[in-house]
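Everyone, carefully examine this protein record:
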Amino acid sequence: YSLPFCKPENIVYKAENLGEVLRGDRIVNTLYTVLMNLDKKCEVLCKKPDNPIKLTVEESKLLAERIQEE
């Protein structure tokens, strides 16, 4: 959640095992709900039509850098 996108109100980090720590993985809660064997239409996760996200130049550069690094 280091980029300015939708995130939960309370971010909870889960305990990690050694392999996850060495890979640099971070396990946190998310706004997504994943259900198996259930047909569902597209759904907007975070909608703020009256308050769109406006990136600063620094945030925009960081976002582009993260995309390049995959």
User: Anything to note?
Assistant: The two ends are 15 Å apart (CA to CA). Residues 57-68 form the longest helix (12 residues). Residues 32 and 38 are 15 Å apart (CA to CA).
